[in-house]
Structure formats: C-alpha cells, structure tokens
Design goal:
The chain is an alpha/beta fold and about 325 residues long. About 25% of the residues lie in helices and about 30% in strands. It has two domains: about 130 residues, 3-Layer(aba) Sandwich (Rossmann fold); about 140 residues, Gcn5-related N-acetyltransferase (GNAT) (Aminopeptidase), CATH 3.40.630. It binds zinc ion.
Amino acid sequence: MAKLYFRYGAMGSSKTANAIMVRYNYMERGQTALMLKPHMESRDGVKQVRSRSGLTAPCEYIEDIDSIDVTQYNCLIVDEAQFLTREQVEKLVKIVDEKDVPVICYGLRADFKGELFPGSLYLMAWADAIEEVKTVCWCGRKATFNARIQDGKVVRTGEQIVLGGNESYVSLCRKHWAQGLLGGRGIRRIESGFDQYRDMLSSAQPDAGQLARDLERGEMFLLSEGGDSLAEAVAVREKEDLIRLASLATREAYRMTGCARSLIGHIRALYPKMRITATAPEHLAAFFEKVGFVYDRQVNECPNCADPASNSMLCFACLPAEDEA
Ligand SMILES: [Zn+2]
C-alpha cells in the first residue's frame, strides 16, 4: 500500500536537496518520480526546484495536478509543502489511497511566529509517516524555529508569507527564538531580504543590474555577530569546477579583522573541489595573496561590470582546497 509521507524541518535542513536525491534514486532504479511545488513559491516562474547547495530538478506545479496522469509515476515528491492548501493535501491523500501512488512531502513545520503553516497542519494530521529532517541552531541544539530577521533583529509579528519582502530567515532552537538571540559571530547563507544588505553589497558591486543577476544565480553569505552584519560575499558558480567571487565587502569598522578571510574560508570549505576566481583593483592584491589567492592575469574588461575602462583590474585565482598539501 502506498503511503503519504511528511518530512518536515526548519530552514536550512536540506529538505530540497533530500527531495532531489529521492527523485534521483527513483531514476537510478529505472523508475519515475514527479517533482511538484506550489506555484506561488515560484517567484521566477521557472518550473524547477533548486537546493541551497545548487542541485536542481525540473518540476510541475501542484495547481496543475488535475491535468497530470499521476499513475504513470512511481512516486510524487512535493517540495515547499507548507504552502499547500487543505484541498491540495486532500488531493494528495486521494492519490495515495485511490491510485496507490506514494507521495513524499517536504516542508517547514511552523512559520516565524511558531504557528503551523496550513499545508503542514493537514500533513501532520493526515500523513501516514511523519519524519523530521534535522538542523541545528548556532548553539548546537536542534533548530525548530524559523526566525524572521529584519534589520538585524528577530521579529515575531507580521504576515505569514511576504513574497519579495525585505526580511531573511535563520533557524534557531526554541529558546533562542524566544529570546531573539542570534548568537556570536557566525556565517549563514542569505536567501531573501537582500535589501537589508544593499548598502554593503553595493559597496562591492555598484552596478545594481549586475548585483541582481549575481544574487539570482549565486549564493550570498553573511558574517554577522548578534544581529549586526559585518561582512558579505556573493559566490557564483560559473562552471562545474569554478566559482566566481562576485562580491566581497566588509563594514568599514570591521576591516582588517579577518571577516573577509573567514568568508573566503567558508566558501572554500563548502566547495573544496572548486577553483575560485576574483577580480579586484591592484591595491587589493596584497589582501588576496594573504587569503590564499595567486595573481592570475590582468583583465582588460571587468567581468563583474563589463567596464572596458577598468583596465587596471587584476584577476586572482584560488586553487581547490583539496589540492593543498
Ligand atoms: Zn539555540
């Protein structure tokens, strides 16, 4: 008998990566799995799911489920299942019970206020199997809350869903969510609410259009302490084995204190097999050499802004961390 699964976790618990791996495992066995997500979650209108770590898979929208012959699949996988409506969960239950197709849903349990999302509520109530995908708070305890961060502070009031809003999220344990404590110095990935970091970002990349493209294609990492943002980096994967450091900026008061070095170290640790390139003016050469880059070549056109006038820009490269003795 097929089952309905709900696998829930806080943000950053690799739910989407898990979903993509499950789909891959089906394909590897010569079977088919259909990936689905709610349309409202698709800000870009692309039928694709994408994990934080950069894995992608094609998908369909759950809103179109009635026009899909689900019996041709061995399994349905639903990402961002917290956004499902009651009716959509009911449809999934029927697919499991009447068509005998297993459905695996991945989603958040609760919103930034600690309230269940509608999709999670009905999945909690009706799923055959409920499994937790774990992640940790900065303190090491299990993170069960998705704290909404606005201007460096944990906020606990507001709308449940703000698309294109000016806030970001971080997973915290219940205690630190309640206390609003964001911990000591640490690096986390920022996936939304880029506007709150706009000043710092634009100091490294003044071309707003290019910055928007880099944020869309790449990953932004923030080094913060308590609620204060100290430094940021944007890394764009240009090829299978090549990352372009598109932006790197430290708040003035924190320059020369190792912030940028920590961010580069973080990116290298995440992608030990990648070569990292950075383009910077000549006066930053000493800095890049100190953090493990070597001078590669002079570039006549800045790849970040395509400005042909910036002919004093130098390109630096950092070899894969794995190649180091
Ligand atoms: Zn904690």
